[in-house]
Amino acid sequence: MIARRLRSLGLLGLNERNAGFLGRYNAPAQLVSVDDKVIAKTLATRTGITVPRTFSVIERFGDVARLSELLPSSPDFVLKPVRGAMGNGVLVIRERVDNDFLLANGRRLSLNDLKHHVANTLAGMHSLGGRPDRVLVEERLRVHPAYREIAVEGVPDVRIIVFRGVPVMAMLRLPTSRSAGRANLHHGAVAVGVDIATGRTTRAMLGSRPIAQHPDTGATLEGRLVPDWEKLLSTAALAGEAFGLGYLGLDLVHDERLGTVFLEANARPGLGIQLANGAGLEPRLRAVEKLALEGVSAIERAELARRLFGRADDSAQIASSPVVSSSSPEPAPISFFKR
Amino acid sequence: LSRRFLLLVALCLATSVGLVSYKLWGRGWLRALGEASARWSVDVQVHVPPGTDSSRLQLALADKATAEIEDERFQHEGWELSLRSRREQRVARFSPSLTAASSARQLNYRFSVRPREPAVEAENKEDLPADALGASEEIPSDDDAILRQAKYLTEPARDEESRVRALFDFVQDEVIASASKTGALQALRERSGDDAARARLFVALTRSIGVPSRLVHGIPLIEGASRPVHLRADVFLDGHWTAVDPVRGRFGGSTAGELVLMRGDGELAQLESGRTVELHVSTARESNLEGAIRQRIRSGHAHWTDRLSPLAFPARTQLVLQLLLLLPLGALVISIGRNFLGLPTFGTFAPLLLALAFHETPLLPSILLLAIVLVVGSVARLLIDRLRLLLVPRLSVLLTVVVSIVVAIDFLLVGSNKEPLFSMALLPMVIFTMTIERLSLMAAEEGWRATLKTLGGTVVVTVACYLIVRSHTLQRTFLLFPELNLSVVSGLLLMGRYTGYRVSEWMRFRALGEERAPPMPGLDP
Fold first, then answer.
1. Where are the alpha helices (DSSP H) in chain A?
2. Best of A8, A14, A116, A209 to disrupt the B interface by mutation (most B CBs within 10 Å)?
């Protein structure tokens, strides 16, 4: 019963995502290009996308002892496991007080606490599969004024699912006090659906429960405009071809000074985005699967996404789209389009 | 699903079902399975603790008067079988071999038995052996305290049977069962004692009033893992022996289904130095089918289908094989839990390993032990975390804590003289440790709700695996028909291509499903 109902909504399940998309469009050998945040940043920069400045990468245990020398002179910065997942092990340092470090969520850590955290991260406590890791020290992003009243303790980001270089669904992730400033849904961040055509927020979910207001600030969440939406969407389309992976979840941030910034990419993005948008991913992915995308630029792909997946449109438009070949070829697995 | 894939699935399934059917009907296994066998295989395990120097060991052999004993075998590493005397009570004597003198030694005595209907034959009181009334150190029927107590208890009774009943009631109701090893006298003084002391006290009391009685060492013939031998008494009433068991509260009645290992005052197994040794017995019903297959393999007339079942291996290897052959089925349960139900677990195969570790322990103690280890371990991890250790040394300290918890629990159980609750060798300490680590990390990063959910998922999948590996029926089925694992493989193949929703996703996206049907793919609320 309920399965048929979800099927009719085009809801994508984990099994289908893994077998139908990750397994076919994301080559295992390419995963390192997003799983390793240092490589991901390099690849993104190469495509001309802005990334947060890297202060240093801590690689050796020997560096833990002289950690204070490796930390940037700026009062605020972020420590990230290079191969971390789901925001685990990320420390956002807001300012320094005496010799201590004040986190974005208000916790206070000593230099020794920080060293312990770095040592644990190097040993693989936060990395995928528990493998030894490195620690990325990078610039802390500042909340864009447009988000002031709906972001708490951290920086909101826009998660966009990009399939074969075409953005298919987007959501705004808002940190809450419960998520301790992190923008990850399973940590308790709010998910807000975003209309691909206009960048306007549609509805919001906290966990699997719809909400109208931000749980901390009480600000209305529907009908807001994500700033600079066109730029954001084309950045997503551009980043979608930077890593050689067909199915990606991209996290983009509006920074007060830098504008649209690439934060990281995820090769196994979660499915909560469907709840936030009240729509299933599958029909959109199937539609993109049929497109012939060779030689189509990032700008054109972003434009295509706005026409195909915007609220006002429906799937009938796919047929009239100029870039769709009449006889849809079998989708080329793995190498999702040639450049 | 491609045709070739389905063909592969069908091929696996057909091979497996075909082989099973051929064995069942073509080779007549079904008929043999249906024939209930009256035979039991018995394994007596004698464990001699280390440091018992060069004492010789004497072991009483099963009583041939009440049962048909066949195929008696000894496995005596570190021992030399020196003498088997054949008198009224058959005994085997072992001397320790010089090479293994100082270490702990294990000795197994195995046989196949078919119990006979116990004959109720009248005997003359005068013909009874003298020790049925005699006093000894273990049965102090001439002790003043015993005599006084028996006299006091039996004074109001008129006939012999009610006198014996008075003694029976006394031992059953007023001498409390306890774990401490005591003798009959001490049990009388303290009004408590272990099973053996209570049985001996009862025998001493009956003898002191002039009623012949004797100790009976036996074990009920039911499917069962290692357990200690049970002590009861035979009392000579009205010209024949009546079974009286003050420990289990039984007076008279049939002794069918009981295997008698020894009648008499002594110990079943005893070292020359006088020390008693630990003795456990496991029993299992023999099947005509397994027996016949083994017979065919042994005599060299095995059909090729006989050789498919690993029945010719020694019993110990077979016990391991029984579990190994069930692992694919457990793995299928794991993938169903993951890909169909969507249950989150700590570690992919950890539930199966936990289930294996607990397969000899009843369900509730297993869950209790797991809970103790996880709770104490998590608290320990919080404390260890304060030490700011590097990851691997910290995990190692945690591992040490886990080992200590398990050993401590074992000590407590051994101290209270209970049987060991779990197979120590199989306990996956590393799995415990990693589960505690993952649990603590998850609680710190994602909060208690997500952690408890994952813990719940782990417990559900573990219990499902546990029920599988613990099932004697499944163990036997897969041992007789290992080809069933091809069916399991076809199930795994199908599971591997399942792209439908997980049950957890119904829950997660239910809010979406309950909304009115929106147009696709874009929608307007």
1. 2-8, 14-16, 23-25, 32-35, 37-46, 62-65, 67-70, 111-123, 229-239, 273-277, 282-290, 298-309, 316-320
2. A14
Which residues of chain B are within 8 Å of residue A112 when distances are taken between CB atoms?
A: 388
Q: Is B525 exposed, middle or buried (0-12, 13-18, 19+ CB in 10 A)?
A: exposed
Nearest-Cα distance to chain A for B383, in Å, is: 15
Task: Find the mean pLDDT for residues B177-187.
Answer: 82
Surface of A (181-200) touching B: CB under 8 A: 186-188, 195
| β-strands A201-206, A190-194 pairing | antiparallel
> Nearest-CA neighbor of B346 among B324, B314, B378, B393?
B378
As a whole number of angstroms, the distance between CA A132 and CA A127 comes to 7
Q: At residue B17, does pLDDT exceed 90?
A: yes
Whether the pLDDT of residue B360 is over 80: the answer is no
Contacting A residues, span 147-176, partner chain B, CB-CB under 8 Å = none
Question: Does B498 contact A123 at a Cβ distance shorter than 8 Å?
Answer: no
> Quick check: B524 contacting A, CB < 8 Å?
yes
Q: Can you tell me the distance from the alpha carbon of B278 to that of B272, in angstroms, rounded to the nearest whole number?
A: 15
pLDDT attached to residue B522:
42
**pTM > 0.80: yes or no:** no
User: Is the ipTM reported for this complex over the cut 0.90?
Assistant: no
Indicate the residue type of B524: D
Cα of first residue to Cα of last residue in chain B, in angstroms, is 36
> From CA B52, how far away is CA B46, in angstroms rounded?
14
